Amino acid sequence: MDSELIYIFNIAIILLVANIGGMISKKFNQPEVLGQIVAGIILGAGLMAKTEIITEIGEIGVIFLMFIAGLETDIDELKESGKSSSMIALMGVLVPGILVGTTTYLLTNNFEASIFMGIISTATSVSISVQTLKEIKRLRSKEGVAILGAAIIDDVIGIILLTLSVGILKPSEGASLKIVIGKIVLFFVIIVIAGKVLRFLLIKFKELYKINEKIVSFALIVCLLLAFLSEELGVAAITGAFFAGVVFSMTEHRHKVTYEINKIASLFFIPIFFVVIGMGVDLKQAFSALGLGSIIILAAVIAKVIGCGFGARISGFDSKQSLQIGIGMVPRAEVAIIISNLGLSLGIINENMMAITILLVVSTTLVTPSMLKWSFER
């Protein structure tokens, strides 16, 4: 087979296993995303290599997923949840950071690795929860909005903590904390200005240029540009995509854009993203760290549920809602792996700790959809 065309065959196979995995998962009354991830794990276990082009398509998938999450967010509800999301995020960083860091230190007696594992445990990968909430039609619920808001805030806190810890543990490797914070502030200033300008332009040129005919293309351009900008300024690309969606959610084009982007994303990009997550799992390396890792992982899961759940409880949510929010904040995925890769390259953590991170990603990715669905149905 022509090596230049093999990626086309690979994409076809990935879409096939994503659909089969999703159908099997729904057959057992579980979210499709769970079946897609498991299908990816099976596919990646020697059947197909994860190539650069497939990985990049998957990255577009998560950007679209968060863009749709932004489109489906009620800005008034998001504003109302600002204080509660901040409290949930704060407790979701403090409790896992302290509990996982302490657990790691007691097991390894390695202070630097303990600090880094604590930071890794704070990183929430909300894409798993977002897709599950979409499937059970609870993304726009009060709990769903709180999870989204908290995940964005703890992403920013995590970046600051990571930069601070690298600056302390490896001074020559870290950027200035002031510069990092300045970039984050600049990003949110740009988001606010861009939102106001875009809304003005959409109203101003509504009739003159028949913008409704090109609104979906325009929305895609804005989404990708803000995702790129946020990544360049040290904030995750998914954060920029989410806020691009929020901007368009405040316009009259919201439903048209949501419908059209959903069609494109859910048929192609998003299934590939979840299969790619599964394909990135090295089962041999993950299971090599099962003994030590199981204790750290248990601490990481319990810490998120308790920390975020407590933050929700003191913010006015009832016990059931607090549990739902705590579970929704459990997943760790690409962010945790990126942080651990950095720690490994700097010599702060070793291969065993890297394997534990992979095991954390696998386990939380697999259990969260079922746990989240159960928490809303109980």
Structure description:
The chain has 378 residues and is an all-alpha fold. The protein has a single domain (6-136, 154-377), classed as Na+/H+ antiporter like fold (Up-down Bundle), CATH 1.20.1530.20. It is built from 17 helices and no strands. The relative contact order is 0.17. The model has no long low-confidence stretch (mean pLDDT 83).
Unreliable spans: none
- Rounded to an integer in angstroms, the radius of gyration calculated over CA atoms is 20 Å
Query: What's the rounded overall pLDDT mean?
Result: 83
Counting DSSP E segments of at least 2 residues, the number of strands comes to 0
Helix content: over 70%
Major sheet characteristics:
none
Q: Helices and strands: which structural class?
A: mainly alpha
Task: Report the span from N to C terminus.
Answer: 51 Å
Beta-sheet strand percentage?
under 5%
CATH class: Mainly Alpha
Total of helices: 17
CATH topology: Na+/H+ antiporter like fold
Give the count of structural domains: 1
Cα shape: globular
